[in-house]
Write a structure and sequence with these properties.
alpha/beta; TIM Barrel; 10 strands; globular
């Protein structure tokens, strides 16, 4: 089982590095990147999950509604750079109003911690906000489970890391590791675990070299990143089935 996910958000990453950009520009960059991603996904006839902020969805309601016809829309809270517990419920309701479909999944921006009790209270089934590895300056989760587990009534779905050394297989890996090595690790991890959970951001598939971001984020972006995504999809289509995260969760037998 392969779960390919995208964090659909207003492109506010430059603000982490002191570069202010307008709201319209944030939406524009993510929208153009998302449209490019959808071209690849539609061509390959696979199903994915899109963790979407309510802010982006309200700015592009028709686009998100159209995506929801074939794919899962889950919550990425209301705003990408601000959070209060009330946003858990309000973002879910906003996405459900736009898509006309139930929203059961959640992922916190930047995979920040959030209360399980608040997630349950807001009506979610699962939380995919855990990267079970060590990223300096972000998080230290080397001793967390690598596979889905139940915690305080919430199904936790970690993003994939390699067995033993827990090398993360997420968006930054695709920008900083050679593709031949990544392909080897993706197949090895899929065969070991029986599943892969990967995530990207639509804005990675636009040229983001002029936004003052560090080289480890920009060295591969736009068309080069799109090519890596398509190579990954072609590789993994021969190894397993692409399903939504909700479908993946429903396949788990958790205690």
């Amino acid at each position: 089982m392969i779960v390919l996910t995208f964090d659909v958000e207003e492109f506010d990453t430059p603000e982490e590095y002191g570069r202010e950009i307008s709201f319209d520009e944030k939406i524009k960059v993510s929208t153009e990147g998302l449209n490019r991603v959808m071209g690849i996904i539609d061509k390959n006839n696979i199903r994915c999950t899109f963790f979407t902020t309510a802010t982006f969805a309200q700015a592009q309601p028709e686009l998100i509604k159209n995506i929801s016809n074939q794919h899962e829309i889950a919550s990425h809270t209301f705003y990408h750079s601000a959070f209060k517990n009330e946003d858990l419920l309000s973002s879910r309701l906003a996405l459900e109003e736009i898509t006309g479909k139930q929203v059961v999944g959640f992922r916190m921006p930047r995979l920040a911690p959030v209360s399980n009790q608040e997630i349950l209270k807001a009506g979610y089934l699962y939380n995919s906000s855990l990267n079970p590895t060590w990223i300096p300056g972000r998080y230290f989760h080397l001793f967390k489970p690598r596979m889905p587990f139940l915690e305080e009534g919430v199904i936790q779905v970690p993003t994939s890391v390699t067995p033993i050394f827990r090398i993360p297989l997420f968006w930054l890996s695709f920008k900083n590791f050679p593709m031949w090595w990544l392909k080897k690790m993706l197949v090895k991890t899929l065969k070991h675990d029986g599943a892969l959970s990967l995530y990207f951001h639509p804005w990675e598939f636009e040229d983001i070299t002029n936004f003052g971001l560090p080289n480890f984020m920009t060295k591969i972006s736009g068309t080069a990143m799109l090519k890596r995504l398509e190579e990954t999809i072609h590789l993994l289509k021969n190894e397993g089935d692409f399903i939504t995260m909700n479908e993946f969760v429903n396949n788990q037998k958790l205690k």
